[in-house]
Amino acid sequence: MGWVAFALIFWVAAWLANIRLANGRWSNRQAVRIAVPLLFGITLLVLWEGLVRGLEVSPVILPAPSRVAQTFAASTETLWGDFRQTVLKGALSGFAIGCSAAFLTAIIIDRSAFLTAGLLPVGNFVAALPIVGIAPILVSWFGFDWQSKAAVVVVMVFFPMLVNTVQGLRETDAMQRDLMRTYAAGYVQTLLKLRLPAALPFVFNGLKIATTLALIGAIVAEYFGSPTRGMGFRISTGVGALAIDLVWAEIAVAAMAGTAFYGAVAWIERRATFWHPSQRSGSR
Amino acid sequence: MRGSLVQVLTVLAAIVGLWYLAVAPMNIRVALDLAERSGAQVVPATAAERQARPAWQLMLANPGLIAQAYRLDRPRLPTPDQVGRELWKTTGRMALRGRAWSKRSLIYHGWVTLRSTFWGFLLGTAAGILIAVAIVYSRVADMSLMPWAIISQTVPIVALAPMIIVVSAQLGIQGRALPKAIISAYLCYFPVLVGMVKGLRSPAPSQLDLLRTYDATGLQSFFKLRVPASIPYLFTSLKVGIAAALVGTIVGELPTGAISGLGARILIGDQFGTPLAIWAALAAAAILAGGLVTVLDIAQRLTLRRMGMA
User: Fold this and answer.
1) What domains are defined for chain B?
2) What is the pLDDT of residue A284?
3) Residue B12 is nearest to which of A15, A39, A122, comparing CB atoms?
4) What are the residues whose beta carbons fall under 8 Å from the beta carbon of B205, sequence distance 6 or more?
5) Cα A21 from Cα A35, distance rounded (Å)
6) CB contact under 8 A, B289 and A235
7) H or E segment at B134?
8) Rounded to an integer, what distance in angstroms lies between the CA atom of residue B281 and that of residue B214?
9) Which residues contact A258 (CB under 8 A, 6 or more apart)?
């Protein structure tokens, strides 16, 4: 029971520390803003470790984080191969193709008010559909390798990205467009200098939604057939072979890849749309 | 959809038209293989030779057999009317014969999926609202929970889905309803959380001050100001949430060997090589998603009208 008691005491101590930090004098400092959620995350890990050890949970059900970390360190090669297959080949290429296709489609559609009015509701509806279900069909069309995973990702990210970009392109108001006209700006100039920059917050919103969808699509598609590598393949075979610690290591990789991917897009967003109110410091 | 029905219908018609056009090149190889086996004249004569040619050349060389591509039993890409007929066969016709709850009926499988979605939606919405209230009222919760809530959504839940099912099976939980509901709640809680934090924070400081001059307690200002102010935000995020919950349920059914539910129909259709079953299940899922969002949309309009906000 020592482990459980330790975990619970750590929990209470971390909680009290966080309360002091959050309500204290330096609560607006960057360091505290990072320390508080970090401490919360560490607490979760300590609780998990303590409960698994203290209650002697079988590693076949739930391995302790330390055990997962060991497996992670021992099988970095497998994990790296899976990461390359699923994230770099499947998810990223699908993300790039799907998002750029949606972006270009949005710019073309935008020229016609008729198409915009017709496609926005349809796109909104399709974006709400469970498109992951299309994975087995695309796997049978494009084969087992990463191409089919990229295809699933393309279909999944296309509509959220399209809808967001089309909405973003409509963001400018008549006054701003009139100003461009008084400058004798053509369609391309207005697009590049006014409407695309104004659309960027929406575009990035779509990109951020697409990052999560890309990973989900690439992993789900692997459940329907893949070469003998890839994160989805390893997870589904690992569950069957009771190699649960390896599965958790894969989950950790997926979590880190997802967070890094999202973080990268968010970082670019901060750089590209620094002028937008939501990005200014102090207004949060 | 307001005022743009003509445009929407045009776009839909265009999509269906493109679909029909795509069927011929997608299916022509299968159609020609079948025709060759039944002894028809096919140019070029063997499958190996045809493999080297692009689909449009095959279509030009065998104009008489293009129609076959639209009548396959196991097409690579079925036509919309084939999907529609399969859907009717497994829903309406079975219901008319009183077998709506048969294991082969999509009504039964749709109901299984709907039930899990519903529980996941309830669980996710409750969690989202509770965490949102905690975040609005407690600075600690705001600082420690909000970053992790965002990170939780960047973690692909599908990676976790098989684990959730294994762990709950080991803990002796019968059936798949609970693990599926947890997966869909995981996807559903986040939009609700974000919407409710925004909504509960939407009253202006002057409004909160006014309640303070009335000597309102914290509970009173919560129920009389913050909650009503958050309702429009709540409904908007509920619509996103229910769609996410449905995705979660289907993901929970897909990779894990479930035997009932729309996701399981897709899986079984894949394993038995019956594409029409997959497409019919997909169509049913789309109808379900559309229905759920529409119901919430109507509820939103009615509620907001009664509250005098719309």
Assistant:
1) 5-72 (no CATH), 106-306 (1.10.3720.10)
2) 42
3) A122
4) none
5) 9
6) no
7) helix B106-137
8) 56
9) A211, A212, A215, B154, B155, B156
Average pLDDT, chain B: 83
- CA distance linking residue A154 with residue A145, whole number of Å: 15
Quick check: A251 and B10 CB within 8 A?
no
Q: Residue ranges per domain, chain A?
A: 2-57, 72-279
Cα–Cα distance between A27 and B286 in angstroms, integer?
47
CB B184 within 8 A of CB B121: yes
Chain A within 8 Å of B282 (Cβ-Cβ)?
A: yes
Residues of chain B contacting A118 with CB distance shorter than 8 Å: 4, 6-11
Give pLDDT tens digits for A234-281.
888 887 777 888 888 888 888 888 889 988 998 998 888 888 777 766
Provide DSSP, A14-55: HHHHHHHHHHSTTTTSHHHHHHHHHHHHHHHHHHHHHHHHHT
pTM for this predicted structure: 0.84
**ipTM score:** 0.81
Which is nearest to B186 in space by CA: B131, B226, B232? B131
Are B279 and A262 in contact (CB < 8 Å)? no
| Residues of chain B with C-beta less than 8 angstroms from the C-beta of A209 | none
Would you say how long chain B is, in residues?
310
Nearest to B89 by CA among B300, B308, B276: B276
**Identity (one letter) of the amino acid at B120?**
G
CA–CA gap between residue A104 and residue B79 (Å, rounded): 28
The residue with greater pLDDT, A278 or A89, is: A89
Q: How far is A183 from chain B (nearest CA, A)?
A: 33
The partner residue sitting opposite A23, judged by closest CB among B139, B154, B269, is: B139
Task: For A128, name the nearest residue in chain B, comparing CA atoms only.
Answer: B243
Judge whether residue B291 has pLDDT over 70: yes
- Residue A93 has a pLDDT of 93
Find tokens 């496609």 and name the residue. A119
CATH number for the region A72-279 comes to: 1.10.3720.10
The percentage of residues in chain A with a pLDDT greater than 90, rounded to a whole number, is 11
Amino acid at B94: M
Query: Sorting pLDDT into bands at 50, 70 and 90, what band is B1?
Result: very low
Contact B288, B263 (CB under 8 A): no
Query: What tokens appear for B231 in the block?
Result: 């309702």
pLDDT number for residue A283: 41
> By C-alpha distance, which of A259, A159, A203 is closest to B153?
A259
Chain A contact present for B195, CB below 8 A = no
pLDDT for B127:
94
Residue of A nearest to B266 (CA): A133
* Residue range A20-73, pLDDT digits in tens: 877 777 777 777 778 888 888 888 888 888 888 888 777 777 888 888 888 888
Least confident of A153-157, B76-80, B155-159: B155-159
State the residue for tokens 């697409």: A210
Question: Does the pLDDT at position B167 exceed 60?
Answer: yes
